[in-house]
Amino acid sequence: MESHCGSHTNACATTYPGVARRFLKRWIKAALRSRLPSLKRIAPTARNHSDNILSFNERPLTNAVGEGLNRRLKVVKKPSLGIPRFGALG
Predict the structure, then answer these.
(1) What is the pTM of this model?
(2) Which of 7, 29, 33, 74 measures 20 to 30 Å from 47, CA to CA?
């Protein structure tokens, strides 16, 4: 029986949590064996947070909207840094 998932895609990872878990586990092992220090450093972090990483498959929610609002607020607030008090605006 031929798999409906290509060998180089993560299409099944979003459908089947077991596939995503196995993929992450293999990725962490490969990162630990890598000769790249940055990958070796991030692998334990990925392992420690694997449940949170994998939960994105079940609930694809991020904090992107909140981060975008924070950025806009900072942009709006920055020009007012030199104003000593609110009454000085009028």
Answers:
(1) 0.56
(2) 7
